[in-house]
Protein backbone atom coordinates (compact mmCIF):
# COMPACT_ATOMS: atom_id res chain seq x y z
CA UNK A 1 0.00 0.00 0.00
CA UNK A 2 1.92 3.07 -1.17
CA UNK A 3 0.92 6.64 -0.37
CA UNK A 4 1.09 9.62 -2.71
CA UNK A 5 1.15 13.36 -2.15
CA UNK A 6 -2.38 14.77 -2.26
CA UNK A 7 -2.58 18.51 -1.54
CA UNK A 8 0.08 21.00 -0.48
CA UNK A 9 -1.06 22.60 2.79
CA UNK A 10 1.92 24.87 3.44
CA UNK A 11 4.39 25.83 0.72
CA UNK A 12 8.11 26.32 1.27
CA UNK A 13 7.59 30.10 1.29
CA UNK A 14 4.67 30.00 3.74
CA UNK A 15 6.72 27.79 6.08
CA UNK A 16 9.77 30.07 5.82
CA UNK A 17 7.68 33.15 6.68
CA UNK A 18 6.18 31.40 9.70
CA UNK A 19 9.58 30.18 10.88
CA UNK A 20 10.92 33.73 10.70
CA UNK A 21 7.92 35.07 12.64
CA UNK A 22 8.35 32.42 15.36
CA UNK A 23 12.09 33.14 15.55
CA UNK A 24 11.42 36.84 16.08
CA UNK A 25 8.83 36.15 18.78
CA UNK A 26 11.16 33.78 20.60
CA UNK A 27 14.04 36.27 20.32
CA UNK A 28 11.89 38.96 21.90
CA UNK A 29 10.66 36.79 24.78
CA UNK A 30 14.04 35.69 26.16
CA UNK A 31 17.01 37.70 27.35
CA UNK A 32 20.55 37.56 25.94
CA UNK A 33 21.70 36.52 29.42
CA UNK A 34 19.41 33.49 29.61
CA UNK A 35 21.22 30.19 29.23
CA UNK A 36 18.98 28.69 26.60
CA UNK A 37 19.01 25.08 25.45
CA UNK A 38 16.92 24.30 22.40
CA UNK A 39 15.90 20.64 22.41
CA UNK A 40 14.74 18.98 19.21
CA UNK A 41 12.60 15.86 19.35
CA UNK A 42 14.01 13.46 16.75
CA UNK A 43 13.45 12.74 14.09
CA UNK A 44 10.55 14.93 13.00
CA UNK A 45 11.69 18.23 14.52
CA UNK A 46 15.14 18.13 12.91
CA UNK A 47 14.37 20.21 9.84
CA UNK A 48 12.17 22.76 11.62
CA UNK A 49 14.81 23.17 14.35
CA UNK A 50 17.56 23.72 11.79
CA UNK A 51 15.63 26.53 10.14
CA UNK A 52 14.21 28.02 13.35
CA UNK A 53 17.47 28.40 15.30
CA UNK A 54 18.89 30.49 12.45
CA UNK A 55 16.02 32.95 13.02
CA UNK A 56 16.62 33.20 16.79
CA UNK A 57 19.04 36.03 17.52
CA UNK A 58 20.20 34.85 20.96
CA UNK A 59 23.08 32.76 22.27
CA UNK A 60 21.82 29.20 22.67
CA UNK A 61 22.86 25.56 22.75
CA UNK A 62 21.24 22.72 20.83
CA UNK A 63 20.54 19.18 21.97
CA UNK A 64 18.30 16.37 20.80
CA UNK A 65 16.16 13.67 22.32
CA UNK A 66 14.80 10.68 20.49
CA UNK A 67 11.55 9.22 21.68
CA UNK A 68 9.23 6.77 20.06
CA UNK A 69 5.44 6.88 20.14
CA UNK A 70 4.13 5.82 16.74
CA UNK A 71 6.52 3.35 15.16
CA UNK A 72 5.41 2.87 11.57
CA UNK A 73 1.70 3.21 12.18
CA UNK A 74 -0.47 6.31 11.74
CA UNK A 75 -2.14 6.05 15.15
CA UNK A 76 -0.70 6.88 18.54
CA UNK A 77 0.04 4.00 20.88
CA UNK A 78 0.28 6.35 23.86
CA UNK A 79 3.52 4.62 24.79
CA UNK A 80 6.58 6.88 24.90
CA UNK A 81 10.05 5.39 25.02
CA UNK A 82 13.28 7.41 25.37
CA UNK A 83 15.62 6.13 22.67
CA UNK A 84 18.25 8.86 23.12
CA UNK A 85 18.54 11.13 26.13
CA UNK A 86 20.18 14.58 26.26
CA UNK A 87 23.94 15.07 26.11
CA UNK A 88 23.86 18.43 27.93
CA UNK A 89 23.23 19.14 31.61
CA UNK A 90 19.98 21.13 31.75
CA UNK A 91 19.68 21.99 35.44
CA UNK A 92 19.14 25.74 35.83
CA UNK A 93 18.83 26.25 32.06
CA UNK A 94 15.99 27.73 30.01
CA UNK A 95 14.62 24.88 27.92
CA UNK A 96 12.82 25.36 24.62
CA UNK A 97 11.45 22.11 23.19
CA UNK A 98 10.98 22.05 19.43
CA UNK A 99 8.45 19.77 17.77
CA UNK A 100 7.26 19.43 14.21
CA UNK A 101 3.73 18.45 15.24
CA UNK A 102 1.65 17.96 18.37
CA UNK A 103 -1.09 15.40 17.89
CA UNK A 104 -2.39 13.56 20.96
CA UNK A 105 0.14 15.52 23.02
CA UNK A 106 1.26 12.34 24.78
CA UNK A 107 4.86 12.59 23.56
CA UNK A 108 5.29 16.12 24.89
CA UNK A 109 3.29 15.47 28.05
CA UNK A 110 5.75 12.75 28.94
CA UNK A 111 8.81 14.73 27.83
CA UNK A 112 7.90 17.93 29.66
CA UNK A 113 7.20 16.07 32.91
CA UNK A 114 10.51 14.29 32.52
CA UNK A 115 12.52 17.46 31.82
CA UNK A 116 10.79 19.58 34.49
CA UNK A 117 11.88 17.03 37.10
CA UNK A 118 15.51 17.94 36.26
CA UNK A 119 15.15 21.40 37.90
CA UNK A 120 15.21 23.61 34.83
CA UNK A 121 14.89 27.41 35.08
CA UNK A 122 12.00 27.44 32.58
CA UNK A 123 10.47 25.19 29.99
CA UNK A 124 8.60 26.25 26.86
CA UNK A 125 7.30 24.36 23.84
CA UNK A 126 7.41 25.46 20.21
CA UNK A 127 5.66 23.39 17.55
CA UNK A 128 5.28 24.17 13.88
CA UNK A 129 1.98 22.30 13.62
CA UNK A 130 -0.78 21.61 16.13
CA UNK A 131 -3.74 19.27 15.74
CA UNK A 132 -5.83 20.39 18.74
CA UNK A 133 -8.76 18.14 17.80
CA UNK A 134 -6.61 15.08 18.46
CA UNK A 135 -5.44 16.04 21.95
CA UNK A 136 -5.69 13.32 24.59
CA UNK A 137 -4.14 15.24 27.49
CA UNK A 138 -3.78 18.73 28.89
CA UNK A 139 -0.74 20.42 27.36
CA UNK A 140 0.28 24.08 27.25
CA UNK A 141 2.08 25.04 24.03
CA UNK A 142 3.87 28.40 24.03
CA UNK A 143 4.53 28.86 20.31
CA UNK A 144 2.38 27.32 17.54
CA UNK A 145 3.06 27.86 13.84
CA UNK A 146 -0.19 26.56 12.36
CA UNK A 147 -3.26 24.79 13.71
CA UNK A 148 -4.35 22.04 11.34
CA UNK A 149 -7.34 19.70 11.02
CA UNK A 150 -7.14 15.96 11.64
CA UNK A 151 -5.63 14.91 8.30
CA UNK A 152 -2.53 12.80 7.82
CA UNK A 153 0.27 15.03 6.63
CA UNK A 154 3.91 14.67 5.62
CA UNK A 155 6.93 16.78 4.69
CA UNK A 156 9.34 19.25 6.29
CA UNK A 157 10.51 16.57 8.71
CA UNK A 158 7.21 14.73 9.10
CA UNK A 159 7.14 11.16 7.83
CA UNK A 160 4.79 8.45 6.77
CA UNK A 161 6.58 5.15 7.48
CA UNK A 162 9.91 7.04 7.46
CA UNK A 163 9.35 8.51 3.98
CA UNK A 164 8.58 12.10 2.81
CA UNK A 165 10.61 13.86 5.55
CA UNK A 166 12.71 15.62 2.91
CA UNK A 167 9.83 17.38 1.16
CA UNK A 168 10.38 21.16 1.42
CA UNK A 169 6.61 21.71 1.82
CA UNK A 170 3.88 20.15 3.99
CA UNK A 171 1.19 18.13 2.24
CA UNK A 172 -1.60 15.64 2.82
CA UNK A 173 -1.22 12.10 1.49
CA UNK A 174 -3.63 9.63 -0.07
CA UNK A 175 -3.62 5.99 -1.23
C1 LIG B 1 5.52 12.32 15.72
C2 LIG B 1 5.75 13.81 15.75
C3 LIG B 1 5.72 14.11 17.22
C4 LIG B 1 4.74 13.10 17.77
C5 LIG B 1 3.41 13.75 18.02
O1 LIG B 1 6.76 11.69 15.98
O2 LIG B 1 7.01 14.13 15.18
O3 LIG B 1 7.00 13.91 17.80
O4 LIG B 1 4.61 12.09 16.76
O5 LIG B 1 2.47 12.80 18.42
P1 LIG B 1 1.68 12.86 19.79
O6 LIG B 1 1.33 14.29 20.07
O7 LIG B 1 0.44 12.04 19.51
O8 LIG B 1 2.52 12.25 20.85
P2 LIG B 1 6.98 10.15 15.75
O9 LIG B 1 6.72 9.41 17.00
O10 LIG B 1 6.25 9.71 14.52
O11 LIG B 1 8.55 10.03 15.50
P3 LIG B 1 9.40 10.81 14.39
O12 LIG B 1 9.49 12.24 14.84
O13 LIG B 1 10.71 10.13 14.39
O14 LIG B 1 8.65 10.68 13.10
MN1 LIG C 1 8.48 13.23 16.35
MG1 LIG D 1 6.85 9.79 12.73
UniProtKB/TrEMBL annotation:
Answer yes or no on keyword Nucleotide-binding.
Answer: yes
Q: Where in the cell is it found?
A: Cytoplasm
An example molecular function term from Gene Ontology annotations:
glycosyltransferase activity
**Superkingdom, according to UniProt?**
Bacteria
Keywords in alphabetical order: Cytoplasm, Glycosyltransferase, Magnesium, Metal-binding, Nucleotide-binding, Purine salvage, Transferase
Would I find Transmembrane among this entry's keywords? no
Q: Name one Pfam family in it.
A: Pribosyltran
Q: In which pathway does it act?
A: Purine metabolism; IMP biosynthesis via salvage pathway; IMP from hypoxanthine: step 1/1; Purine metabolism; GMP biosynthesis via salvage pathway; GMP from guanine: step 1/1
Which spans are transmembrane here?
none
Q: Which cofactor does it need?
A: Mg(2+)
EC annotation?
2.4.2.8
Its catalytic activity?
GMP + diphosphate = guanine + 5-phospho-alpha-D-ribose 1-diphosphate; IMP + diphosphate = hypoxanthine + 5-phospho-alpha-D-ribose 1-diphosphate
Residues covered by the Phosphoribosyltransferase domain: 15-160
Give the similarity note. Answer: Belongs to the purine/pyrimidine phosphoribosyltransferase family.
Q: Which NCBIfam families match?
A: HGPRTase (TIGR01203)
Q: What does the function comment of this entry state?
A: Purine salvage pathway enzyme that catalyzes the transfer of the ribosyl-5-phosphate group from 5-phospho-alpha-D-ribose 1-diphosphate (PRPP) to the N9 position of the 6-oxopurines hypoxanthine and guanine to form the corresponding ribonucleotides IMP (inosine 5'-monophosphate) and GMP (guanosine 5'-monophosphate), with the release of PPi.
Q: Return the protein name.
A: Hypoxanthine phosphoribosyltransferase
